[in-house]
From TrEMBL:
Name of the protein: WISP2 protein
Similarity annotation: Belongs to the CCN family.
InterPro entries: CCN, Growth_fac_rcpt_cys_sf, IGFBP-like, Insulin_GF-bd_Cys-rich_CS, TSP1_CCN, TSP1_rpt, TSP1_rpt_sf, VWF_dom
Matching PROSITE patterns: IGFBP_N_1, IGFBP_N_2, TSP1, VWFC_1, VWFC_2
Localisation per UniProt entry: Secreted
Residues of the VWFC domain: 79-145
BP terms from Gene Ontology: cell adhesion; positive regulation of cell differentiation; signal transduction
Species of provenance: Agelaius phoeniceus
Annotated GO MF terms: heparin binding; integrin binding
Swiss-Prot/TrEMBL keywords: Disulfide bond, Secreted, Signal
Residue ranges of domain IGFBP N-terminal in the record: 1-75
One Pfam family it belongs to: TSP1_CCN
Length: 223
């Protein structure tokens, strides 16, 4: 009955489809006739202006007055996260940037860094360490400034050992720590010298301690 009242046959659609905001795909309207921008979480909706089903959204009329439109919400009251205009489902792991990784849980999200957070102190061969952005790489790296090379005669002196010559790096490190989370996504850390500068640094990696138990259902209110 609603379709007969709102849908015209044959279809009459604009020649140029609408330009949608970022994160809102073009979909067919409720009549299956013209292309419209899918409504996002929290946006108004009705029979013609449909929600983005690819994000698990449906038009929720539960809190709307009779005869009016609804609001786009997750189906079955499923909670999710919206970050930079994009929706993530509960339990989904995502990367807003190459430097952090996040976990959507219970309507909020927590993030951990993917770049190593080591600190380099000044040393004789690197008196002024500085962390800089490297083109083509996500994480910044340490570079040395102010290091002076020894004169060529001194490096070539018989029996002299040049500090600039490459030497093998004996591997050293601690075991990975237990996962920081008792369930779900967490991270483990260790101290190791397995890097191109052969210096001790704290390293992290993601770990999973298994799925978290489901929350108990809320008890009905007693009048």
């Amino acid at each position: 009955q609603v379709c007969a009242q709102l849908c015209r046959r044959p279809c009459y659609c604009p020649w140029v489809p609408p330009r949608c905001p970022r994160g809102s795909p073009l979909v067919l309207d409720g009549c299956g006739c013209c292309k419209v921008c899918a409504r996002r979480l929290g946006e108004p909706c009705d029979f013609l202006h449909v929600c983005d089903q690819s994000q698990g959204l449906v038009c929720d009329y539960s809190s709307a007055p009779a005869g009016t439109g609804g609001t786009c919400n997750f189906e079955d009251d499923e909670e999710g996260c919206e970050v930079n205009g994009r929706l993530y489902r509960d339990g989904e792991v995502f990367q807003p940037s190459c430097r952090i990784q996040c976990h959507c849980l219970d309507g909020g999200f927590t993030c951990i860094p993917l770049c190593q957070e080591d600190v380099r102190l000044p040393s004789p061969d690197c008196p002024f360490p500085r962390r800089v952005e490297i083109p083509g790489k996500c994480c910044p790296e340490w570079v040395c400034e102010g290091a002076q090379e020894q004169p060529r005669d001194a490096r070539a002196a018989p029996g002299a050992v040049s500090p600039l010559l490459w030497s093998p790096c004996p591997p050293w490190g601690t075991e990975w720590s237990p996962c920081s989370a008792t369930c779900g996504l967490g991270f483990a850390s260790r101290v190791s010298n397995q890097n191109r500068l052969c210096r001790l640094e704290t390293q992290r990696r993601l770990c999973s301690a298994g799925p978290c138990p489901a929350l108990p259902a809320a008890l009905p209110a007693v009048s």
